[in-house]
Amino acid sequence: MVFTSLYSLCGAGFALLQLLAPVTARPVARSTSSSTLLALQFANVLEQLESTFYAQALQKFNQSDFTAAGFASAQIPLQQFQAIFKDESTHTTTLQSAINSLGGKTVSNCTFNVASLLTDVPTMVAAARLVENVGVSAYLGALTLINDTVLSTAAATIMTVEARHQTILNVLAGATAIPQAFDVALNPSEILALTGGLISGCNLGIPANVPLRVNNSGSIQAGTKLTFTSAALNGTIPIEELSCQFLAGGFPVAISQPLSNCSVPANVTGPLLVFVTNSSQPLANNIRDAATSTIVAGPTLIFIDNQQDALAIAARPGLNSTVAPSGTSNPITSSTTITLTPVTSSTTSGPVTSTVMSTLTPATSSRAMSGTVTLTMASTSTPATLSKAASVTSTVTIVPTTVSNDWTAVTKTISPSEASGILASAVPSMSSG
Ligand SMILES: *[C@@H]1O[C@H](CO)[C@@H](O)[C@H](O)[C@H]1NC(C)=O
Ligand SMILES: *[C@@H]1O[C@H](CO)[C@@H](O)[C@H](O)[C@H]1NC(C)=O
Ligand SMILES: *[C@@H]1O[C@H](CO)[C@@H](O)[C@H](O)[C@H]1NC(C)=O
Ligand SMILES: *[C@@H]1O[C@H](CO)[C@@H](O)[C@H](O)[C@H]1NC(C)=O
Ligand SMILES: *[C@@H]1O[C@H](CO)[C@@H](O)[C@H](O)[C@H]1NC(C)=O
Ligand SMILES: *[C@@H]1O[C@H](CO)[C@@H](O)[C@H](O)[C@H]1NC(C)=O
Ligand SMILES: *[C@@H]1O[C@H](CO)[C@@H](O)[C@H](O)[C@H]1NC(C)=O
Ligand SMILES: *[C@@H]1O[C@H](CO)[C@@H](O)[C@H](O)[C@H]1NC(C)=O
Ligand SMILES: *[C@@H]1O[C@H](CO)[C@@H](O)[C@H](O)[C@H]1NC(C)=O
User: Fold this and answer.
1) CA–CA separation, 232 vs 85, rounded Å?
2) Contact 120/322 with Cβ under 8 angstroms?
3) How far apart are CA 143 and CA 34, in angstroms?
4) CA 39, CA 2: separation in Å to the nearest integer?
5) CA triplet 266, 121, 335: central angle to 5 degrees?
6) Quick check: CB of 278 below 6 Å from ligand 6?
7) So which residues are the signal peptide here (predicted)?
8) Among 183, 281, 400, 416, which residue's Cβ finds the most Cβ atoms within 10 Å?
9) 418: alpha, beta or left? (left if phi > 0; alpha if psi -120 to 50)
10) What is the Å distance from ligand 1's center to 417 Cα?
11) Burial level of 413, CB count in 10 A (0-12/13-18/19+)?
């Protein structure tokens, strides 16, 4: 296990806000693990992505653009987007200060290619919804990497706000505010399969799963047969040996089906992750125990919008008239996808059209992330798609192939049964307090 022993620390840890406090005196003594630092750096890059996205969205669209997209009033989305942008900007700078305080450096030279998500307001809203859903899953997954309960709690204080954004975006997208009782945790490689196409020019030191894209361009509902595009679906593994797996909040395990007959499960509303695996064994919905080595591509993220809340209708009564009806083509065809592969690995998977190398070097320690730092980011031009159809929206992706786990210095995660035990014991103390 690699970790950075930087400083000694008096007493308890710090919350991010304490880390944010101006460096009045000497740098604070602090010890942290490399995986903690990596988790914060990763979260910071995602916050940079979000901030860039919202800044450009607010700059590009005016009030008429929002009303033309079917909102009852332009102020309904604008107030929310402004609030969300402010949050993301604050998160970015707070995380940056925290990283610096821990002796690390933020990854500051990424380029965020969000223009394709900003073609029009419906596309932008659908993309924002997707980004916020991914953000929540990213923070959930990153928690397992943080080897410090104070910092993990601090990260969770950000995560709950991301979940608020997610809910608002579900409404602004004209769908269901709170579609599921649980969110799904995804590991950083999975998050990069979903978002990597928007990020280039920097090295996060994290291998990305091979991106997966849903071919279907029309409405996606229960029973819809899905087909996919992915660099990993190239005939090397016969299709008969591949499965598609669906995961939604609250599923104990994924629903596994033959890839050749992959139909959207019944009774899912809201976000649905899809993986392609080389085993029909269902993936566990458990960030520690999921058999990620079977993942060939993905996940991608689709939304099954088969319910529309009254709140969403009130916010966006004109949605049906302004959004392409289901069954027509997918308006959001975005972006490139990237694959991160370790330089030190003998295998390079996926097409590589450009390679950018950089190194995350924590300022104060040469030991941090040793052995895992030097990675290439290979970016390919696989389009990802999001559909903004009124009744169903759609796609993004993930799957770890080049799983190099040196950086995942996961010390302990809890199983669902352990989690319910904690919840059960917490409830009485909460109600008594
Ligand atoms: C708003 O922006 C659109 C282009 O996105 C432009 O056609 C329109 O004239 C603008 N409206 C106002 C009131 O500025
Ligand atoms: C982080 O992990 C290392 C190695 O397991 C451990 O020695 C250290 O005490 C941990 N730090 C915190 C703050 O839990
Ligand atoms: C999915 O789309 C890709 C590229 O657009 C195409 O090559 C492939 O044949 C499609 N797959 C199916 C099963 O339709
Ligand atoms: C495809 O799967 C459905 C159930 O999801 C099943 O009813 C059908 O028989 C399958 N078709 C083939 C060709 O396997
Ligand atoms: C879906 O929900 C309906 C109504 O609650 C139920 O009758 C049906 O069995 C469910 N289907 C599945 C596959 O769970
Ligand atoms: C596929 O399956 C084998 C063993 O079942 C496993 O070792 C391999 O890493 C798997 N993953 C991929 C992405 O092919
Ligand atoms: C949109 O259309 C669907 C089906 O045509 C309908 O059920 C729904 O109420 C409509 N939504 C709005 C906001 O008009
Ligand atoms: C083809 O797919 C296999 C696994 O599905 C993968 O290991 C290989 O890298 C892929 N080839 C290319 C050129 O992407
Ligand atoms: C990004 O920053 C890293 C570290 O500062 C550097 O090594 C790398 O060359 C930079 N990449 C680009 C494309 O500027």
Assistant:
1) 35
2) no
3) 13
4) 14
5) 75
6) yes
7) 1-25
8) 400
9) alpha
10) 54
11) middle
